[in-house]
Amino acid sequence: MLRGARHRWWRPLLTGLLCASLAVAVQVITGFVVGGVLVATGTPLSEAVRRISTTSPMTPLTFAVVIISLISLIPSAMLANWVVNGVRPRYLSSVAGGFRWRWFARCLVITIPIFLIFVALQVVLGQETGPRPQHWVILLIMVIIGIPFQSAGEEYAFRGLVLQNVGSWFARPKIALIAAMIPSIVLFALAHGSFDPWVFADLAIFALASCFVAWRTGGLESSVALHATNNVTLMIATLLFGGWDQAFVSSTTVGSPIAPAATLVVNGICVALILWQAKRIRLQRLYQPPPPQPEAFGYPAAGGATGTIRP
């Protein structure tokens, strides 16, 4: 979609830089606002900074800053793509020019039961349990309301923006797909902060599944459903049964071969069912340019029928 007359080699780089700058600006502003409220209510400045920046424990305050920062990736990615490439924001959602809510709902019907079974098996087979965190009810509400949008923010940045812009450097679609998936997967995994090979593999497998369904369905609805269902179900489980502070990947997080294997199986099942449903309803997965419209005063548009039509 970006390989039109406006395409230049530097536009993808500028798009990514602008998107990152906007997201960082939102994060800084959010931190200043929250910190200002804390200081105004009597919290020492050093303590306010610590409470905002630390993720262990993940308090409602810190969680709110993280959620808002990641949600801001949605308008940041849309605006950057529009300003630099001239592509209207709605085409970052799908080739149909908008977020297809009915298709998104159909994807949720597929992913939610599978992840509920997966989480239930984790609990039954001996997931470590522990006390619920303080303010767990507030955190639960924040997860249910905010995490779907947080998941969408990551998909708009790593799948929407990266796939379209990196892919625009290559004329052949298959080469463009492979070349664009590599940075999408690697950047997504690295953004979580852990360099443990098993954690990296776990995140990379998930990112690969998201890239694949976004490509095969022509939009981000299925990858958002996959991402949101994964995050919401796992976070609710850690809030209710223990492990909340360990649920967030950081530089100290380590993994095991079990996590990427489970991610491969669960996401593989979801991807197969999503693609089956997309084929069943004949979901649009390629951009279809609108037919040329007659211009004002009755004259035909360029490339239209020949002849003279007088006003």
**Approximate strand percentage:** under 5%
Computed CA radius of gyration, to the nearest angstrom:
22 Å
Number of domains: 1
Given the structure, what is the number of helices?
10
**Overall pLDDT confidence:** 90
Shape: globular
Structural class: mainly alpha
Q: Which stretches of 5+ consecutive residues score pLDDT under 50?
A: 301-311
State the share of residues found in helices, binned by percent.
55-70%
**What pattern of helices and strands is seen along the backbone?**
HHHHHHHHHH
| Strands, count | 0
Q: Please summarize the sheet with the most strands.
A: none
Termini gap: 35 Å
Structure notes:
The protein has 311 residues and is mostly helical. The chain has one domain (11-285). The protein is built from ten helices and no strands. Helix 5 (101-124) runs parallel beside helix 9 and helix 5 runs antiparallel to helix 10 (258-280). The chain is globular. The relative contact order is 0.13.
What secondary-structure arrangement, pairings included, does this model have?
Blueprint: H1 11-40, H2 45-53, H3 60-71, H4 73-85, H5 101-124, H6 136-167, H7 173-191, H8 197-217, H9 221-241, H10 258-280
Helix pairs in contact: 1-2, 1-3, 1-4, 1-6, 3-6, 4-6, 5-9, 5-10, 6-7, 6-8, 6-9, 7-8, 8-9, 8-10
What's the short version?
With 311 residues, the protein is mainly α.
Essential attributes:
311 residues, mainly alpha, 10 helices, 0% strand
